[in-house]
């Protein structure tokens, strides 16, 4: 959820110039309203979380934990809505620029800082409840003889949340925003050779896209240091995972231990190019899961690469935005007039497009997660992506490895298996879906068929979105005003 909210905030900054134009209210007043509203979002959540903590102490009810987490989540959603409204309607970005100037990336980074601060404050407020949960798990682990980690301090807890949930998106996003702004500045104010070269639209777009692509390729080098990782040592587990990657034709640069002080039991894969692609396994995951379960979790992560989930998800989201923003943007021009389309009506279209993309992200992400779970069961059953095992069926042992891994991940993260998840679905639902795979032919699983249909519809959506964007450019005579296609963010 944090990832998507940060992306929405970044999109609002990028669209500020093209949607708002010169119709901006008094920046100082609008900026003050934004800051007060952001603080109110956190203060409301902090009051609810405090009440939930007291209720948890009195009753021990897990519902109090869920309510506290919901309060924090709604505070983040509400503060993001306040931020977007502030950027689009209340002159927040203009207020920041009035203080620091319109420097490359500096004003954008400072503008988003209060929103980041609210996120940090929600984690700060949640810490006492999280500590109570960890202490309860700690007692059970001591009784069972499991490895235990000392619980982190409040400051370290917030820092870990910033590293693991926020910077994974914010760091690349700021780099991309900085690169786009730099190219735009060079095209208008740079040396003569730069202005001449970038005056050609194809060159301008090509340089911009090249820089963004390089950020995507090399950002894992930065993120692995933000996340504090170290290479996984040689041994049986490393050999098993490397053999698995080879079996499924997935190239990785390194297997990394993700050091979280035992505060997170999880795994991840990052990187779009094999040499700079990393599989990360947290210290807690390696300590608390059996080797077969670790391999199943690693297979789940490899599935995201093998099934190309990230590029498909990105393409689908961009298509959804285009499918909504272009026709509704033109409709706003026709129905309300050009001035409204560049103001409140255009902003409404952007919000509708973002809401549609938000819904689509959750819907597609959950199904990709279910397919990755199924891939882990396929792998543990002896199936290969290279088509060498057409008669393999999903075995109870293979499904149990992933089911058990999910159970332990939930336990050591202090998460109830029935707790719903917007991006992943609940652990219980994922476990039930794995049980339903037992005895099925690995090459013909229902979730694989469902995802294939999603991708077919996505291809149709890509084509329609491309046609709509071409049509929009033709309608505007090669320009790009309004929500259907913003011009340079500095015009």
Oligomerization state: single chain
Query: Which segments are poorly predicted (pLDDT under 50) over 5 or more consecutive residues?
Result: 478-491
Determine the fraction of residues in helical runs and give it as a percent range. Answer: over 70%
Tell me what portion of residues adopts beta-strand conformation. under 5%
Structural class: mainly alpha
Radius of gyration, in Å, reads: 24 Å
Q: How far apart lie the N and C ends?
A: 32 Å
By DSSP (H or I, 4+ residues per run), the number of helices equals: 17
Task: Compute the average pLDDT.
Answer: 85
Biggest sheet strand order reads 1-2-4-3
Polypeptide structure, described:
The protein has 17 helices and 4 strands. Helices cover 73% and strands 3% of the residues. It is mainly alpha-helical. It starts with a helix and ends in a 16-residue tail after the last helix. The protein has a domain of 201 residues.
Summarize the structure in short.
The protein has 491 residues and is mainly α. It is 73% helix and 3% strand. Strands 1-2-4-3 form a four-stranded mixed β-sheet, with helices on both faces.
């Amino acid at each position: 959820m944090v990832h998507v909210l940060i992306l929405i905030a970044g999109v609002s900054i990028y669209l500020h110039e093209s949607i708002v134009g010169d119709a901006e209210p008094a920046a100082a007043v609008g900026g003050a309203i934004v800051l007060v509203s952001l603080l109110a979002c956190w203060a409301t959540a902090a009051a609810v979380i405090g009440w939930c903590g007291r209720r948890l102490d009195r009753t021990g009810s897990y519902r109090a934990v869920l309510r506290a987490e919901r309060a924090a989540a709604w505070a983040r959603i509400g503060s993001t809505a306040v931020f977007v409204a502030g950027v689009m309607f209340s002159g927040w970005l203009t207020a920041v620029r009035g203080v620091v100037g319109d420097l490359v990336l500096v004003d954008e980074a400072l503008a988003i800082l209060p929103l980041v601060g609210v996120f940090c404050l929600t984690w700060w407020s949640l810490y006492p409840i999280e500590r109570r949960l960890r202490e309860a798990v700690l007692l059970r682990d001591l009784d069972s003889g499991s490895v235990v980690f000392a619980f982190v301090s409040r400051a370290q807890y917030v820092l870990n949340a910033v590293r693991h949930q926020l910077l994974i998106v914010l760091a690349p996003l700021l780099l991309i925003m900085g690169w786009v702004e730099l190219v735009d500045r060079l095209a208008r104010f740079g040396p003569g050779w730069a202005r001449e070269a970038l005056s050609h639209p194809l060159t301008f777009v090509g340089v911009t896209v090249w820089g963004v692509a390089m950020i995507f390729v090399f950002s894992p080098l930065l993120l692995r240091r933000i996340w504090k990782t170290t290479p996984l040592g040689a041994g049986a587990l490393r050999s098993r995972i490397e053999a698995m990657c080879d079996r499924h034709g997935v190239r990785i640069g390194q297997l990394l231990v993700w050091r979280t002080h035992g505060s997170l039991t999880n795994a991840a894969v990052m990187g779009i190019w094999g040499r700079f692609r990393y599989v990360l396994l947290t210290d807690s995951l390696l300590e608390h899961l059996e080797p077969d379960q670790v391999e199943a979790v690693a297979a789940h992560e490899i599935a995201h690469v093998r099934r190309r989930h990230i590029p498909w998800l990105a393409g689908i989201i961009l298509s959804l935005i285009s499918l909504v923003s272009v026709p509704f943007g033109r409709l706003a021009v026709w129905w309300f007039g050009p001035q409204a389309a560049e103001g409140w009506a255009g902003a409404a279209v952007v919000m509708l497009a973002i809401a549609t993309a938000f819904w689509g992200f959750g819907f597609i992400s959950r199904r990709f997660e279910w397919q990755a779970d199924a891939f882990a069961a396929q792998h543990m059953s002896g199936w290969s992506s290279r088509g060498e095992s057409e008669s393999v069926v999903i075995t109870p042992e293979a499904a149990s490895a992933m089911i058990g891994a999910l159970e332990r991940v939930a336990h050591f993260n202090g998460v109830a298996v029935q707790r719903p998840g917007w991006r992943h679905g609940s652990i219980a639902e994922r476990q039930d879906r794995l049980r339903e795979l037992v005895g099925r032919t690995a090459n013909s699983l229902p979730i694989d068929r469902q995802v294939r249909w999603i991708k077919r519809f996505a291809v149709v959506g890509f084509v329609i979105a491309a046609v709509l964007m071409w049509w929009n450019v033709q309608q505007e005579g090669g320009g790009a005003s309004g929500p259907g296609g913003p011009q340079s963010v500095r015009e």
